[in-house]
Amino acid sequence: QVQLAESGGGLVQAGGSLRLSCATSGLTFRSYAMGWFRQAPGMEREFVAAINWSGGTTYYADAVKGRFTISRDNAKSTVWLQMNSLKPEDTAVYYCAARLLSSGSSSAYTTRQRYDYWGQGTQVTVSS
Fold first, then answer.
1. Phi and psi based region of residue 48 (left: phi greater than 0; alpha: psi -120 to 50; beta: remaining)
2. I need a labelling partner for 73 at 20 to 30 A (CA). Which of 28, 30, 59, 62 fits?
3. Could you report the per-residue pLDDT of 35-68, keeping only the tens digit for each?
4. Other beta carbons within 10 Å of 56
5. Residue 50 contacts by C-beta under 8 Å, 6 or more apart in sequence?
6. Which of 55, 51, 68, 66 has the alpha carbon at shortest distance from 8?
7. How remote is the C-alpha of 96 from its chain's centroid?
8. 80-120: per-residue pLDDT in tens?
């Protein structure tokens, strides 16, 4: 079965850093774009970052540009989200997602409905 497993969340002070990991199994990893989304209490799940199959192209939400970095290692079937300069408004459950590659526009990387598989989520809490 396809499985995505996030780890690395936790409690951190504002200005601190966390590195989230997403280990995958049951899929041909290089055939999937990977993304990170987050959902705060009472809010819609929103796009955070995405990366294409090779790792050569990345996408970021405006709210995290310059602070977060997404990366992947196809040999390890793993994607990471490095989060620096964290703010209280970054507090949310962070989800890893996988999108099977096919013909599509750049917007597909940032659209929640275009992703096929999701992890269970990991809580990130940033205190002020």
1. alpha
2. 62
3. 999 999 999 999 999 999 999 999 999 999 999 9
4. 7
5. 33, 34, 35, 36, 58, 59, 70, 109, 110
6. 68
7. 5
8. 999 999 999 999 999 999 999 876 678 899 999 999 999 99
